[in-house]
Design a protein that fits this description.
Rossmann fold; binds magnesium ion; single chain; 5 helices; six-stranded mixed beta sheet; binds guanosine-5'-diphosphate
Length: about 160
């Protein structure tokens, strides 16, 4: 069994873009509309000379319990619950939001090894963004731009150290 890495975060932070960057696929739907990814999405991250791992692109955890959004949220929670490592993806442009706070509280209860990944770091002040998320209390914070493939090597180093 290959190790499993789950991408968790609210809609529109760039989980699917990161999934595509890690798996070099165009499988995941990337869209400006929040919540466009309805299903769990599995792919394999293969790097030369490295043990591959499975990446799960979850739909947004919207906090709802009913209907399609609720089902999506439950699937996302299930994916995270079976992951060897969770990447908690947040949006560096928008900063920390109430929904991020909610997901963080849930992740703390889930108690899986978790890295904070601040995405969309292109064109923003990295220090300011890092201090915005400092209250989340993560020892290791990775900043990336999934869309521009920046910071992915550092992210992969951190992931591999934990698998
Ligand atoms: P998801 O809902 O979390 O899966 O988010 P998506 O991957 O669908 O991305 C949502 C939007 O953010 C899309 O318009 C992406 O093009 C955009 N986006 C994703 N990553 C980045 C990034 O690194 N920088 C910028 N500027 N935009 C990004
Ligand atoms: Mg998506």
């Amino acid at each position: 069994m290959l190790p499993l890495v789950a991408l968790v975060g609210r809609p529109n932070v760039g989980k699917s873009t990161l999934f595509n960057a890690l798996t070099r696929s165009r499988d995941a739907l990337v869209h400006d509309q929040p919540g466009v990814t309805r299903d769990r999405h599995y792919g394999v991250c293969r790097l030369e000379g490295q043990e591959p791992f499975i990446v799960v692109d979850t739909g947004g955890i919207a906090g709802e319990e009913e209907g399609l959004a609720g089902a999506t949220a439950r699937q996302a929670r299930a994916a995270a619950g079976e992951a060897d490592l969770v990447l908690f993806v947040v949006d560096g442009r928008e900063g920390a939001s109430a929904l991020d706070d909610e997901i963080l509280a849930w992740l703390r209860k889930l108690s899986r090894p978790t890295l904070l990944v601040i995405n969309k770091i292109d064109g923003v002040n990295e220090d300011a963004v890092r201090s915005d998320f400092a209250r989340y209390g993560f020892a290791d914070v990775i900043t990336v731009s999934a869309a521009h493939r920046q910071g992915l090597d550092d992210l992969l180093d951190e992931v591999r150290e934990r698998l």
